[in-house]
Amino acid sequence: MTKLRPVRDADLPGVAQIYAHYVETSVATFDETPPGVEEWRAKRAVIAGAGLPFLVVEDDGEVAGFAYAGPYRPKPAYRHTVEDTLYLAPGATGRGLGRVLLGEVIDRAARAGARQMVAVVADSGDPASLRLHTSFGFGEVGRLRSVGFKHGRWIDTVLLQRALE
Length: 165
Fold this sequence. Notes:
Pfam families: Acetyltransf_1
Oligomer: single chain
Structural class: alpha+beta
Keywords: Acyltransferase, Transferase
Domain N-acetyltransferase: 2-165
Protein name: Phosphinothricin acetyltransferase
Shape: globular
Number of domains: 1
GO molecular function, one term: phosphinothricin N-acetyltransferase activity
């Protein structure tokens, strides 16, 4: 059974494990060292302190994915703009869980007072994240060329944005 809910402390090892998979095996994130549970606990505190959503999707009692809206930039003028992050466990892709997570993060971020959401997507050759965001009304607003170097190659990022009003 699938259940969507706010992240709990007990979920953080699962969140860390999912993210570590992408750090170690892909260019979806430009992190090169997976953050540990304590770093995830600190990130959760920042997100909660800003009144923003950090959600997990649970499948048969296991964390199958997570998503959150975090502050876009630390400068005060950006306070109404958030950036979304979404990752699914490798065995949980292709089942609509990303759609459930992103839809709820968008709704909750809007209710929290955010006016704009930005997505920064690594152009890894896999169009899944771009398709998902586009299906929710995100539009491409820019491309940063060769800004990341990971696993022996240069990677572009695609900047996407949508209004939350």
